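Deliverable D4.2, example record:
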Amino acid sequence: MMNEERLFPSEPSARAVAVKLYESVRNLPIISPHGHTDPSWFAENKPFPNPAALFIQPDHYIFRMLYSQGISLESLGVPQVDGKQSADPREVWRIFARNYFLFRGTPTRLWLDFALEKGFGLKDRLSADNADEYYDIIDKKLQTPEFLPRALYERFNIAVLATTDAAVDSLEHHKAILASGWKGRVVPTFRPDAVIDAEYSGFQDNLKMLGEVTNLDVSNWKGYLDALRMRRQYFKKYGATATDHGHLTAQTADLSLLDAENLYKRIFTNKLAPGDVELFQAQMLTEMAGMSAEDGLVMQLHPGSIRNYNTPVYEKFGRDKGADIPSPTEYVRALRPLLNKYGNETSFTLILFTLDETTYSRELAPIAGHFPSVKLGPSWWFHDSPEGMMRFREAATETAGFYNTVGFNDDTRAFLSIPARHDVARRVDCAFLSRLVAEKRLDEAEAFEVVKDLTVNLVRKAYKF
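Output generated by the structure prediction step:
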């Protein structure tokens, strides 16, 4: 299924350069600084239950495509809020195999073909005809020691893997990993959305829990900020190097102490004035930046997604079920309060992502090309495709260069897609660099340096690994 020269330029001389560049980085370790894999996999190191549970049910890229064709999430065994999950795994796999053609031309297809061939040695394309055969082969291998989560981590040549964890998470699985003596490095990432976004489900209960886990009074502004500082230190204790923020906008604010105290009082008591929710989120992004300047945690901002857009799906299946939709995002005016306060601090790192590609050359690259604290995250989510990665390089490099970017991160819940996604990113970077070499814009020796930096060095530096 997998041609060894996939994604390289069709022009022979450029393709030859791309092949050489790729060979120099294809076996370098994977640095995965931002993702959503389950830390319990590595803490417990138990076999994955079955092929459907491994490939389909955790991967919204897969089930959102199937759902778009009228295939119900119930029939795919996607867990429901009430705990129901009754679909037969083999039948889920058959549905997936019958509809494999839906993924033609998508990055998901590249990832799936890679996982099936490189992971399980299955070289014929998945179809209704071989669905049961492939299910049995995969299911059998999943029961062997070679396919336990830690063994796969090592086989994938992962050097470090970051998960994304709620601010009040106990981090029990990360503790267990550290206590086990296993040499794999799985670190948490501090995600405080649930205690910053007043529209987040269960927000008031989340604030109460924040107070309980820190034993601080969070009914006042100072106590609330102190509780967040304490949790950040707790995350650092167990290996965290970054925070992550998934706000709808990039809006920031810099309120006076009195205005911030009064705003938080209204937020805490749920006696809101119009605009309070958005203003509080904006203020908290600036507060988080200040804390990052203090404690050194890298700050990631992922704005621009209208999450849980399909209300009936959200009510029945919960968050992260493929119904998040990109929205236009503005950065220049939105980030100015934060950047005026912390953008010139060399102790602070802000990594910006976008789902609005129109902002790459107009807003994001100029910001990153000026402020020492700002770096650009890679093409994200709906754009982590070969075309999206190439558009990012073309739009951002002319103003921000390569060295105001941070390499690649896979942002995945699907464990088997990690090596596939990194392989695609490496190939696209090699294709882009080979074109610069062919056009005599970059020496070949420089291209070899740059591709190694894009693969491992920039991500290590940005995320402090």
